[in-house]
Amino acid sequence: MWKKKYVRRMAAAIALSLFALPAVGGEDTVSSLKERIIDLQNKGDLGFRNFTLCNNIITYGQYVPYPDNRVKAGTRIYFYYEPENVFTNRLKGTYQIWFTQDMIVRTAEGEKLLDSPDALNLNMQSLAPVLDVWANNSLNLGGLPPGKYEFVATMHDKLKKADATRVFPFEVVP
CATH for 46-173? Predict the structure, then answer.
């Protein structure tokens, strides 16, 4: 009888250890993969991914894009993007990312109508790596007359000391 109980307890202990080991090993693997991703991002070129003209932004990766680059006069428009290869600084068990972004609106001929340096400033420190970031800009077209324009976004990675620019042509229609 005591042998049966002993065998059951041993089987339960072995089963429990089999389930527990992958979880511990899996966490180590995930942590090391995140660290490798940070290394790759830190070496990569700063850029914009999924830069999209939208009429609504919900959250990361969820937005309602315009079917083309034509927008109605007097509306509010949004630009969604995901910064690519933002530098992550590791310091005493924390992770920091820091970038700013300028907004410029100019006519097709290059005349600046809006020049807003550091319109966006994201300086974030956390205890866990932040691998996916998204940002948005909103622009009230107000009394902007119909015509062709350009929205210029310039991102400045404060830790990598790198810049990236994206020019997005759009047209205001009546």
Answer: 2.60.40.3880
Task: Kindly report, residue by residue over 27-74, the tens digit of the pLDDT.
Answer: 689 999 999 999 999 999 999 999 999 999 999 999 999 999 999 999
Could you tell me which residues come within 8 angstroms of residue 116 by beta carbon, excluding any fewer than 6 positions away? 102, 103, 104
Q: Give the pLDDT score at 25.
A: 54
Angstrom CA distances, 64 to 14, 52, 54, 132, stand at: 51, 9, 5, 20
Spatial distance between the Cα atoms of 164 and 51, rounded to a whole number of angstroms: 13
Mean pLDDT by runs of 10 across the 174 residues of the chain is 48 40 63 95 97 97 97 97 98 96 96 97 96 95 95 98 98 96
In sequence order, the 6+-apart residues with CB closer than 8 A to the CB of 27 are none
- In contact, 95 and 89? CB cutoff 8 Å: yes
**What distance, in Å, lies between the first and last C-alpha atoms of the chain?**
89
The domain locations on the chain are: 1-43, 46-173
Instruction: State which H helix or E strand residue 26 sits in.
Output: helix 2-43
- What residues pair up with 78 in beta bridges, in sequence order? 54, 138
